[in-house]
Design goal:
This protein is of the alpha+beta class and 265 residues long. It has 2 domains: 2-108, Gcn5-related N-acetyltransferase (GNAT) (Aminopeptidase); 139-249, Aminopeptidase. 29% of the residues lie in helices and 35% in strands. The chain is built from 8 helices and 13 strands. The protein has helices at 10-20, 32-42, 92-107, 120-128, 158-163, 175-180, 214-222, 237-244, and strands at residues 2-6, 46-55, 58-70, 73-83, 110-116, 132-141, 154-155, 184-190, 193-200, 203-209, 229-233, 248-249, 254-259. Strands 1, 2, 3, 4, 5, 6, 7, 8, 9, 10, 11, 12 and 13 form a 13-stranded mixed beta sheet that branches. β3 and β4 (73-83) form a beta hairpin. α7 packs across α8 (237-244). The two termini are 37 Å apart. Residues 1-154 form the N-acetyltransferase domain. InterPro entries: Acyl_CoA_acyltransferase, GNAT_dom, YpeA/RimI_acetyltransf. Keywords: Acyltransferase, Transferase. One of its GO terms (molecular function) is acyltransferase activity, transferring groups other than amino-acyl groups. It comes from Paenalkalicoccus suaedae.
Length: 265
């Protein structure tokens, strides 16, 4: 019999996530400290919103969860769902998701998650459970190029960045994520248009602007640096322009899926 245990230890979820993702689309080979930093410090999963599945004394599955507040909207994200390979197709994933949805309902939250587009079994599973695709996430890398010696990008602040945020950003690219990663902020302005980026190393965590002019923002990015990494909603005008400018797009693309709080349309 499978038992669902909430608020597990970090060691329990680490064991299952690393074993359950052994055949995943991307490499998740991590030490315990790397796992804690990536999934908890950066991704803002919390053990109190997570659970493991026990069969006897063996941990056979795990689900991670985190909660953020965006204005008046409470958002609960499923940060990972993994089952030990030998225990798949026995309903363990359904039990874990059902338990998480009880937590989501208690909070009156919107339930979100990301699924790699090629992962058709996972996509079908979440659709069966009432999730729908909200938007697509594409991952871009800028081509190698020279950077002007007199860039128009100037230091900015977290406040400058947050003032331009509209709607709900991707979970891993919002103001919480920028703060967790100790982001640096830069502002670019030209003829009344301006944009602000939050950066960690060569990764652009997010870019916000007072305009939807993709050409302006793309031009600004060309002055920011070379081999930059950026995740974008595929329908955003900037994404379309970066395609045209020859930015490389990863073959790993994701759907962001959502299940609205009970009572919402």
């Amino acid at each position: 019999m499978v038992e669902i245990i909430r608020n597990p230890s970090i060691e329990q979820v680490y064991e299952v996530i690393t074993q359950g993702f052994v055949d995943y689309y991307v490499d998740v080979t991590l030490t315990l400290d790397e796992f804690r930093e990536r999934f908890f410090d950066f991704d803002k999963n919390e053990l109190r919103y997570s659970a493991v599945a026990l069969e006897g004394d063996e941990v056979v599955g795990a689900i991670l969860g985190g909660v953020k507040q965006y204005g008046e909207e409470t958002v609960f994200r499923c940060g990972a769902l993994a089952i030990i390979p030998a225990h798949r197709k026995h309903g363990v994933g359904q039990l874990l998701l059902d338990d998480q949805e009880e937590l989501v309902a208690e909070l009156g939250a919107t339930h979100i998650l990301e699924v790699i587009q090629a992962n058709e079994p996972a996509l079908a599973f979440y659709k069966k459970n009432g999730f729908r695709v909200l938007r697509d996430i594409h991952y871009f890398t800028s081509p190698k190029h020279g950077v002007p010696s007199e860039s128009k990008w100037q230091p900015a602040s977290a406040t400058d960045f947050e003032e331009l945020l509209h709607g709900r950003p991707f979970w891993q690219h919002d103001a919480y994520a920028a703060e967790a990663r100790g982001a640096s902020y830069y502002r670019f302005e030209d003829e009344g248009k301006y944009a602000v980026v939050a950066m960690h190393g060569n990764k652009i965590l997010n870019i916000v602007a007072n305009t939807e002019d993709g050409r302006f923002v793309a031009w600004g990015l060309s002055q920011l640096g070379s081999e930059l990494e950026l995740a974008l909603d595929s329908e955003r005008p900037l994404a379309i322009k970066l395609h045209q400018m020859g930015w490389n797009v990863s073959s790993i693309r994701q759907h962001e899926m959502v299940k609205e709080a009970s009572g919402e349309e």
